[in-house]
Design a protein that fits this description.
It contains 3 helices and 8 strands; from the N terminus they run ααβββββββαβ. The protein has helices at 36-53, 55-61, 154-166, and strands at 68-70, 80-86, 92-105, 109-111, 131-132, 134-140, 146-152, 189-191.
Length: 193
């Protein structure tokens, strides 16, 4: 039985930090339909994201603000993540996805000019992280239903960041190691901000 029951409050002490082997592991798929345990874990993960963005709750529990949280970031070998954020158009995204995979991408790419952040990384990492401008994802929702979703812009970046986590990839793996501010030369790429 997981400790992440419906009323459990995830804090930063629950978040696995870089260097832990689970962040470099390809995470196991969850048999469908998901059980109550997975549903409650996803609820806890979503509550953490909401709390982390709430000024009162984040101060009370000393939380770093996050827009996405993958299960392996709290030590679970389960292919699922929660995301809660507002995109550049002001649209709120509240997602709990199980066994997500990218099924198609745009040829155009984007990046955040200030790099990306990660709840599992307690240091500033500089450099551009090239991401696809648009992605189509297939996943299961908490009810076990297959969903097909399209994302662009900031939402696309969040989805790719979280799916990378589930495949053992950290965001800084995608930064050019020789020149952190060098962008791929053979593709159309722009800053989204």
């Amino acid at each position: 039985m997981s400790k992440f029951q419906r009323d459990y409050i995830i804090t930063m002490k629950d978040v696995i930090k870089e260097g832990d082997p689970i962040l470099r592991k390809v995470i196991d798929e969850i048999p469908m339909p998901p059980g109550e345990e997975e549903k409650e874990e996803l609820t806890c993960m979503m509550n953490f994201l909401k709390n982390s963005q709430d000024p009162v709750m984040s101060k009370r529990y000393n939380l770093r603000a996050g827009v996405g949280l993958s299960a392996n970031q709290i030590g679970l070998n389960k292919k699922m993540f929660a995301a809660y954020f507002t995109d550049e158009k002001g649209e709120l995204h509240e997602l709990a996805l199980i066994n997500p995979k990218i099924v198609s991408t745009s040829t155009t790419m984007i990046y955040l000019p200030q790099s990306e952040g990660c709840l599992s990384v307690d240091r500033d990492v500089v450099g551009y992280v090239p991401r696809y401008e648009r992605v189509k994802i297939q996943a299961h929702d908490k009810g076990g239903n297959v969903v097909s979703l399209r994302f662009k812009g900031f939402a696309s970046i969040v989805m790719q960041h979280e799916i990378d986590h589930l495949n053992g990839v950290m965001f800084y793996d995608r930064i050019n190691q020789d020149n952190p501010f060098q962008l791929p030369a053979d593709v159309e790429i722009r800053s989204i901000l």
